[in-house]
Amino acid sequence: MSAPQPQPVVEVRGLGRTFDVSRPWLNRVLERQPKAFLKAAQDITFAIDKGETFALVGESGSGKSTVAKLVVGLLEASAGEVRIDGIDMRRQTPSSAAMRDLRRRIQMIFQDPYASLNPRWRVDRIIAEPIRAFGLEHSRQAIAARVGELLELVRLHPRDGQKYPHEFSGGQRQRICIARALASRPEFLVCDEPTSALDVSVQAQILNLMRDLQDEFGLTYLFISHDLAVVRHMARRIGVMYLGRLVEIAASGDLFARPQHPYTRMLMEAIPDLTMSGRPRRAVEGEIPNPISPPSGCTFHPRCPLANDRCRREMPRLGRANAGSSTVACHAVEEGRADAGP
Amino acid sequence: MTQIPLLSVKNLRVEFPTRHGVLTAIDGISFSLREGEVLGVVGESGAGKSLTGAAVIGLLEPPGRIAGGEIRLKGERIDTLSPAALRRVRGKRIGMVFQDPLTSLNPLFTIGDQIIETIMTHLPVSEVEARKRAIALLEEVGIPAAAQRLSAYPHQFSGGMRQRVVIALALCAEPELVIADEPTTALDVSVQAQIIHLLQRICRDHRTAVMLITHDMGVIAETADRVAVMYSGRIAEIGPVRHVIAKPRHPYTVGLMGAIPTLSGDQQRLTQIPGAMPRLDAIPDGCAFNPRCARAFDRCRQERPNLMPAGEGEAACWLVDPAEGTTGEGETA
């Protein structure tokens, strides 16, 4: 940590969310079942610097999207805090001016561009909505001009504003979503699987566009994806999630060169290899357990080749790993048992 | 050693009559598969890859219909068979694995019922033998405690386990060919790797040929012997996997390969193919790719190229036509 530390824009500390997934009261009484809870996210802590892309990866059910919704405030946290520029979002009253300004500065891009645009609205009205809602422009002409500018920014034609969402392809719709997200001049964008619904050639267009926009406006991204290659391409730092917890956070290069956590290693080995280096692949054991009744201790232990008694009893916490920039939540790494294996 | 390929498709055309005229979804494609070979069929959505699979196994959804060409299984025409005769081929000689394992299993029957029924439909065995075979199959696809799991319903399995059951179902009658349509797309990466390994191992053990339809080039690279790249209802390029990935000849394949982010992280920018695949009612004249192709010239806009030899494979591109004097290797860096 020799370089001067840039101010983190986003600080997430001990963030958690629990969902009540109990059966209805009468069923519980008749069937003598206890209440059931699903811990979708637990003890999530990370910080994102200005202009940086931080990515969360994980398989389905690992809690990535829950974290995204918690960070933008679409879900209320059960524990922990989210600070944007040092302002704690949970302490603010929802209607306060500070909160209003925060909302303008945080925008979100969703996975499915077919579901996230109102089919009854013309594109110019969709993009103008944040401008009107936050009172950024007032006259009709100014709003129209700004909408045209935004459409050009995402490489669409200003005339496209006259059309309805169904007239566009998936990639174009995602551009419209990006234009809408940029309309309020945000600083921080939360992108939840922005290209998962798109074909590779269109995905490349959108990823390139997102990087260009980041360079142009100094945007900060929280990028959520299940695709390690996409994350590798986009992010400077990456957090790996498993069953609602962060198991490893590392700089992108370190994570791929020296994955520390056994789960991260397993993920790396599972990716199909395009270069066909003939690298031998170990078959991955097992599947993600049911999050309602997660395993004791480290939740990864039933699938982990390095698990021992301590792993079955005690939940590991994120700690600095011996090498590089990584922080890892693993007893085996902490005790140096991980390096003995291949 | 037979000279006849296991599956041979010649000039297959699939059309959809609509109110606004006939749409040609598959426009004269030809390919063949040898016994035990894995052919990857890759392309973006709308390229016609799933339709090709559906046409081969005779499961085109009406109003879609085969409008031309022929499909031969071991030399015997199967596209002209009666529905009843085709039903005997389907399941018995050609197995099918669909993308979504939840919708390809009947939720109201136990998986044992479904597998035993399928075995007894296609093979002349008693129920006791069928049950034994079902247990052996489930063990082979890696389902623990197979005998007990026979009485479980599909919803009691996880996604990966369900896909294993579907693979067991496809293999019930020892088919010669399995058509797998996006078998891993609905699964997580760690489970995806398991399923790919399973498919590979089982098909090698049984000498079953596989037509693996997917949009994921990585899956193809790991699994297939040859790959056909589809674009706009035609095969743009076909050849040995290593060759197509390392030295693609068709500009579309070149663009597609460059658009995939790699794990080495050495790409500053991804290659961008401008625009999108044309809609079926607006396929341009000449080569369907010409409006998006940086290297298109006049001939590409007028004349439609057919597959011609290019390196170890074939590409449908005028750039590889010896008459044009180019090698098509210019931009394959």
UniProtKB/TrEMBL annotation, chain A:
UniProt GO molecular function: ATP binding; ATP hydrolysis activity
* Principal subcellular localization: membrane
The protein's matches in SMART domains, at most eight in alphabetical order, are given as:
AAA
**Could you tell me which residue ranges the ABC transporter domain spans?**
16-268
Q: One GO biological process from the UniProt record?
A: transmembrane transport
From the Swiss-Prot or TrEMBL record, state where the protein is found. Cell inner membrane
Keywords per UniProt: ATP-binding, Nucleotide-binding, Transport
Q: How does it sit in the membrane?
A: Peripheral membrane protein
Any keyword Transport? yes
An annotated GO cellular component of this protein is: plasma membrane
Family, according to the entry, reads as follows:
Belongs to the ABC transporter superfamily.
Its name, as the record gives it, is ATP-binding cassette domain-containing protein
Q: Top-down, what is the taxonomic lineage of the species of origin?
A: Bacteria, Pseudomonadati, Pseudomonadota, Alphaproteobacteria, Hyphomicrobiales
TrEMBL record, chain B:
UniProt similarity note = Belongs to the ABC transporter superfamily.
Q: Lineage of the source organism?
A: Bacteria, Pseudomonadati, Pseudomonadota, Alphaproteobacteria, Hyphomicrobiales
Offer a single GO CC term for the protein.
plasma membrane
> How would you describe this protein's topology in the membrane?
Peripheral membrane protein
Which GO molecular function, any one, fits this protein according to its record?
Answer: ATP hydrolysis activity
The reply to whether Transcription figures as a keyword in the UniProt entry is no
Organism the protein comes from: Stappia taiwanensis
User: Where does this one sit in the cell?
Assistant: Cell inner membrane
Q: What is this protein called?
A: ABC transporter ATP-binding protein
Biological process terms from the Gene Ontology for this record are: peptide transport; transmembrane transport
Any single Pfam family the record assigns to this protein: oligo_HPY
Keyword annotations of the record: ATP-binding, Cell membrane, Membrane, Nucleotide-binding, Transport
Q: What is its main location?
A: membrane
